Amino acid sequence: xxxxxxxxxxxxTGVPGVFLSPPGFERVIGxxxxxxxxxxxxxxxxxxxxxxxxxxxxIERAGYVAAFPNLLGTVHGYGGTPNGWARLKPLVxxxxxxxxxxxxxxxxxxxxxxYPVYAALEGSSLDEPAKxxxxxxxxxxEATSEPGRMRSFRMLELVTVATDEHCLKWRAxxxxxxxxxxxxLGLAVSVEVADDPFFGPGRKVxxxxxxxxxxxxxxxxxxxxxxxxxxxxxxxHKEHFGETFGITAGGEPANTSCxxxxxxxxxxxxxxxxxxxxxxxxxxxxxxxxxxxNG
Length: 295
Fold this sequence. Notes:
Order of helices and strands: EEHEEHHEHHEHEEEHEHEEHEEEHH
Largest sheet: 7 strands, mixed
Strand order of the largest sheet: 3-8-9-15-12-11-10
Number of strands: 15
Helix content: 25-40%
Distance between the termini: 24 Å
Oligomer: single chain
């Protein structure tokens, strides 16, 4: 008898954009980790484990709040006395506003996996490129329940911090590599220039300037019937984070680039293309996913 807990696709929790991940889906996530690791095997990436929260001041300094206050999830808590809480506690049972006296804390929910890397390098003077790989559970207060448009999701990133010449060449090479990888995975991929969320509010003039500079490229594939979304991006932030966090490379403010993968969206795209049972996927697809070692 089926347990009703599913096999391959995420399970609805009743809250838009938040899903449970069954074993079959997690196997695909594991395959994607293997595949990205194989892509990155030619470089000595330093792996960091990233928590799902980050300093609010770091996010404020980085410019995310100025650009996307509507997407940021903040962490609030009650800072009063036990006696004060005793007076509020009955509101929980009564369905009242027990949270009315909570205040914003020093943490926010992580909106992108790479931010902690730049903060960790604050004040560094780099003699050679810093190369870091990170994965994190991220949160964005998305206003839609469109398939793949999750509020809680996992992001895997390859990050480099160095001179402008290195970052531009690195990003171009990785973008071409990832586009080819998606093709090997049987995905119909398109590469499009887009706005870079690291650079200020979404004003039309500013967005046009960003597109001219080609700061952000998105790789889009079908994630469900009739739904095409960006599942990865290749980003060049110029000296934004170098100046913000006092990182230098070659005697100048460091530049940064990253390639980011949305793991849930990519998994949905692969399942939409090849079916829920990843053990039955074509051998060449599994080979492109690190040989299908996971599971």
